[in-house]
Amino acid sequence: MTDSQGNEILSGAVGGKAPPLPVMSGAYHGARLLMGAIFIYASYDKILHPEAFARAVYNYQILPDILVNLAAMVLPWLELAVGLLLVANRWVPGAAIFTTGLMGFFLAALVFNQVRGLNVHCGCFSTQSAEGSADWWTVARDSVFLGISAFLFRQVLRVQPSGKTGSVDGKNDSMPV
Hints:
With about 180 residues, the chain is mainly α. Helices cover about 60% and strands about 0% of the residues. The chain contains five helices and no strands.
């Protein structure tokens, strides 16, 4: 479907109309770059200080002790890989799945500990206690990040006019087809 100027219109929005493809493409690329930068930044201090990050993971009291060190060693590298893939616009569907899944898990862990009344250091962007304890503002921030991730996930998985899935700009250079 196209508008009066020949721009392709995305379906599925309220009233059957959505912004022209270039608008959605800009939002898609903005979300992709933002989440990529967030994940790269979040991984940096954790990679440099795995022992301190392991303490932060342990303090959440969610994982069995035997998995704490494994999570502290793998999670930052996964965050870095996902962030780099998003920034590079490569394998974006897989990166978007991981981004959304990780943000959902992080948000659930934060809410779980807020409800339990545990005063834990977030460990989100820094292993230093100067970052402060996780609170409801941290939950709100991560909820916004989850919303951006969900938007990105939806955009990379929606069906293109050609019947293929892929990047919003229609180039499908972010995944093999």
